[in-house]
Structure formats: C-alpha cells, structure tokens
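Progress report, Aim 2. The chain analyzed during this reporting quarter is listed below.
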Amino acid sequence: MSKTAIITGASSGIGAATAHRFIELGHKVINIARRASPVEGVINVSADLSTEEGAKRAALEAAESAVKGESISLVHNASLMLKDTVRECDTADLMRVLAVNVAAVNTLNRELLPLMVAGSSILYVGSTLSEKAVAGAHSYVISKHAQLGQMRATCQDLIGAEIHTAMICPGFTDTEMLKQHLGGDTELMHEIGSQNSFGRLVTPDEIAGVIIWAHQSPVVNGTVIHANLGQMER
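Predicted structure tokens for the chain:
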C-alpha cells in the first residue's frame, strides 16, 4: 500500500462503502469516527468531531498512520443532521451541527494539509441541500451551504499546490442517517427514494464510486458533483 485515504464517518453508509473501495485500490484507509468501521483492514481513530480538541487529536493520530510522502485523499463524510425549523432552532443546537459539519472540517484541513503532497485531494460529501432547502432541516441546510463555501474557498487557497477538491452531493441515499431523520420509517424512506428518475434510493456504493472518481480526477477541482439519479424538482 502506498497511498492513504482518511475518511470521516467510515463506520457506516457512504463512508464505509468508500473505505471498502479505497481498500480494494490498495490504499491505507483511516476512519475518523465515534464508531469503528466494519470494513476489514481499516485503521480506526476514535474521535468526537464536535469539539476542536477532538478534531485536532484525531488529525494528529491519523497523521501518524498516514503513508508519508504519498498522496492522501481526505474525505469529509461525517455529518450531523437534526430535525428543526427556523421557528424553534436553538442556537446551541445550530452550533453543535456547525461544529461537526463545518468547524471540524476546518480543523482537519488545517492539521492534515502539511502532509498532503501533489496528487492529493480534499473531498466534501455534501447533499442536494448544499444548494437548496427543504422544511424541517434548518441547521443542516445552513451547515451544508457553509460547507459548499468551504470547498470553493479550499480550491482557491490551494491554487498551485496540485491538491484538488470537489463536493459530491448525493440525493436521497439508503443510509442510517436518512432512516434516523425519518424516524425509522422504512416505507417513507422508499417513498422519498422514488422522487428521482430511477424511482429508487441511491446506494452508498454508488456515491463511493463517485468519490473515488473525483479523487482520481483533478480536473473537477472546485466542482459540485450532483449524484442523485436525476432528482425530480418540486
């Protein structure tokens, strides 16, 4: 193995599927998350990304395991999603979402960039809600819009470094997070999944494939990649 992938939230869903894909390519894969990844061969760094201290400690531990002098793919996949609206969104809850979805991303970038050589990538797993909004996900929508700004700012700040960035925006994907957001209503999950031209939920492995492609394709630097099976607009 000569390259490294550092993935936040590789304990399930899109993160786990992405870890599996990178393992297949022969990368050393490091998972930064509260829970261990189920993917064999992954190095687990237990972390609380809701605090600056937790994110910084995770970055330092991941750096110790990374292959030095080789390209790194840093995949910002971990995310916190609450059910809230503008009418009752508590500021403390908003700051908790921003801590995981925005501030931790900033800390990991800052701490890990000194290790990243030409050919590396910083990839953000966004959402269709990075560019639009729905009711009932107020703090999450705010955070994903902010994360899109982070990606674009990252691109501009790294001009000349030959480190590229992109945001992959999944549509409704068959993940634990979506199921939790819908209160465990599997029937509602699949009803929502029908709201694209293929009439089904996106699979985590489909998004993982896009992430791998984005890492291997520096031409997409600064790009938003929509991965939603052709979501129907309403």
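The mean pLDDT is 93. The longest helix spans residues 91-112. These observations will guide the mutagenesis work planned for the next reporting period.
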